[in-house]
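FAQ

Q: What does a record look like?
A: Structure on top, sequence underneath. For example:
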């Protein structure tokens, strides 16, 4: 078995444009995909100036008056966009002590009466942004950021194919044309009043890739986004945050590194690679009581709503499969079974994701997806739900 990991590898995106360094990049990426499921990506293509602008907005976003947040509460959106109140989600039966805003790249819904209901999952984000007068310029900056990370994610997915010994376009079949795709982003605040320490409980992500920027407020660097030389933002806060589970089930800290994204593998990619790529359980600890909130901006790269992953499982060269054999099987921890992604072998990706959203946001489902709500919550709105 390959050695267990105790830290997250750093992969240098600049190596792909250097003929001598590119094989090293591919080898590092392959190791991260197969043995870890997480990596830091440095020297990426997303504009630092744009990131700096977004970072300066995030604390202001959560400082908006509560009545302004409630105007765009997620329960009003059939597309699961908008604001989620503090403590509105649960993971493994415990409250996630966070509040968040869900945003998305531009999209016109493909759903029409008679079409599969899961096509309603994606739709226009108009109406689910804070009032421009209260936080002028935020929407434009956030949308520009989402589009730049989207472009990076598509480039990165072709590099994943290369790391798996496949043609660079081998994963393109999991995406529709640009106008038919939508990707999601969040502004998330993990707060400091949790008695359990749970900011976000142990879970997996659904899709192929997640790109995360983490940030702290009040004389604290925004998660390795800004340089220590900036007057309002200093080095990373020492309090704990993101953790991942290694091959034996131990929790490993993932501290912020300046200038990087944290990238992780989702359950959909694990499924189509027959477990070659590894989705890794992860959680976020609440900051200690009395400290500042922990802010983050995750980007979730989606795949086509209509693709049936069971029909698209990939085959790999023997020299690539040997790396999976060397790794062996990860420990079967309490968090190993993802409660919302068991349907990948039966349903289109969109249906799987809609089921997950219904389970984690029953108030949205009750209003907009009554049939699914009744199926999963026959006794009405539950007091607690599993968010993942």
């Amino acid at each position: 078995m390959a050695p267990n990991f105790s830290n997250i590898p750093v992969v240098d995106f600049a190596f792909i444009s250097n003929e001598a360094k590119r094989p090293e990049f591919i080898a590092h990426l392959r190791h991260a995909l197969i043995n870890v499921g997480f990596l830091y990506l440095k020297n990426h293509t997303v504009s630092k100036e744009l990131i700096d602008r977004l970072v300066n907005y995030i604390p202001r976003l959560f400082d908006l008056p509560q009545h302004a947040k409630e105007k765009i509460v997620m329960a009003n959106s059939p597309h699961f966009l908008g604001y989620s109140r503090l403590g509105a989600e649960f993971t493994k039966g415990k409250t996630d002590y966070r509040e968040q805003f869900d945003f998305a790249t531009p999209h016109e819904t493909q759903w029409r009466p008679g079409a599969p209901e899961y096509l309603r999952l994606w739709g226009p984000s108009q109406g689910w942004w804070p009032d421009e007068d209260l936080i002028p310029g935020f929407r434009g900056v956030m949308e520009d950021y989402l589009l730049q990370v989207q472009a990076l994610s598509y480039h990165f997915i072709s590099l994943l194919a290369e790391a798996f010994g496949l043609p660079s376009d081998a994963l393109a079949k999991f995406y529709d044309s640009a106008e038919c795709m939508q990707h999601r982003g969040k502004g998330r605040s993990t707060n400091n009043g949790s008695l359990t320490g749970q900011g976000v409980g142990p879970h997996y992500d659904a899709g192929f890739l997640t790109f995360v920027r983490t940030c702290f407020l009040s004389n604290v660097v925004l998660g390795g986004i800004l340089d220590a030389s900036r007057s309002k933002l200093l080095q990373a806060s020492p309090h704990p945050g993101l953790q991942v589970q290694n091959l034996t089930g131990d929790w490993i800290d993932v501290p912020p590194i300046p200038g990087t994204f944290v990238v992780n593998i989702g359950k959909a990619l694990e499924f189509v690679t027959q477990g070659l790529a590894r989705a890794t359980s992860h959680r976020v600890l609440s900051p200690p009581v009395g400290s500042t909130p922990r802010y983050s901006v995750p980007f979730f790269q989606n795949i086509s709503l209509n693709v049936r992953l069971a029909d698209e499982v990939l085959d790999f060269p023997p020299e690539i499969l040997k790396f999976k054999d060397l790794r062996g099987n990860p420990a079967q921890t309490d968090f190993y079974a993802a409660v919302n992604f068991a349907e990948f072998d039966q349903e289109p990706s969109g249906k799987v994701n809609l089921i997950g959203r219904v389970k984690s946001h029953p108030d949205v489902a009750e209003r907009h997806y009554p049939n699914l709500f009744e199926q999963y919550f026959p006794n009405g709105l539950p007091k607690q739900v599993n968010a993942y």
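Q: Is there anything notable about this one?
A: The radius of gyration is 20 Å.
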